[in-house]
Amino acid sequence: MLCLEDLTLFLDISSQSPLIYGTYLTDEILFPMSQLQAFIFCIECLEDVRGDVSVHPSTIDIQQSFADFKYGQVSYMVDYVYYPPLYRVFSLPTKFQRLTRITNNIPDMIFDSVTHVELHNENAFKHEFFVRLAKAFPFLKTLSIHNMWPPFLREKQYHLCDKDWCSMIEYRHLSSLDMTSANSYYLKHFLNQTKTRLPSLSKLKVHYYLLKAVTNNFAKEEMRHNCCRVKQLVTDYPRTDLESILRYFPSLLI
């Protein structure tokens, strides 16, 4: 690799390891590649917490370690929701297509290349998060939500939270939606055309009886529009009332 001129690297370090700072990346990995002209990368790693768990690398530490990085701009994401914390460092503009284990912490930037996102969080996703999600990933095609916590715990809070979804959110390119690990609240608001627009949705993965409950046995009018183009419906139980399903999902391929 000594004569390599272009390098694209996506590295996911699943075990606990020291955070790869810019200085380490330059001195230990890139320095031998004397002919390298272009370096595109995304590195994910879990922080090594076997030492002092109260001390975490600061964003300033990460930023300063890339101060003299000669291969362009660099950005980073830190998710303390996980234990150990998850760090992402990547070159700009982004070139990777997939981001997993995303929590509420989305940086204020545009990921033009990312088309596949998996959301994981034990804290509730609120309306402003989904507004940021749509803006951050304008070409999102596949979305998977893993969150069993609604943004409310009591009925009174539900009505207050429901009003928060007054502004319309559109995912213009979203074609595949996986809700098998999501609270019914998120399914309800993604399918409701007065809350969310999904003009390209063609695949829906969901628990069958949850779908029946949310759509009121495939009768709710405000959810028909987002369901009308779905060609593939993936469920965990056999679909018994096929006639009602086909009326609700007229594009479904049997």
List keywords for this structure.
2 domains; 12 strands; four-stranded mixed beta sheet; alpha/beta; 254 residues
How are the elements arranged and paired?
Blueprint: E1 6-17, H1 22-30, E2 38-47, H2 59-65, E3 74-79, E4 86-91, E5 98-102, E6 116-120, H3 127-136, E7 142-147, H4 155-163, E8 169-170, E9 176-182, H5 184-191, E10 196-197, E11 203-205, H6 208-214, H7 224-227, E12 232-234, H8 242-248
Parallel strand pairs: 1-2, 5-6, 6-7, 7-9, 8-10, 9-11, 11-12
Antiparallel strand pairs: 2-4, 3-4
Identify the strand order in the major beta sheet: 5-6-7-9-11-12
Helix content: 10-25%
Describe the sheet with the most strands. Answer: 6 strands, parallel
Number of strands: 12
Structural class by sheet pairing and helices? alpha/beta
The succession of helices and strands, N to C, reads EHEHEEEEHEHEEHEEHHEH
Question: Can you tell me the number of structural domains?
Answer: 2
Look at the structure and give the mean pLDDT: 84
Compute the number of helices. 8
- Tell me the fraction of residues in β-strands, as a range: 25-35%
Give a verbal description of the structure:
Helices cover 24% and strands 26% of the residues. The protein is of the alpha/beta class. It has two domains: 92 residues, no CATH class; 158 residues. The strands form three sheets. The chain has a six-stranded parallel beta sheet, with helices on one face. A four-stranded mixed beta sheet has the order 1-2-4-3, with helices on one face. A two-stranded parallel ribbon has the order 8-10. Helix 3 links the parallel strand 6 and strand 7. The protein is elongated and about 65 Å long. About 3% of the residues have low confidence.
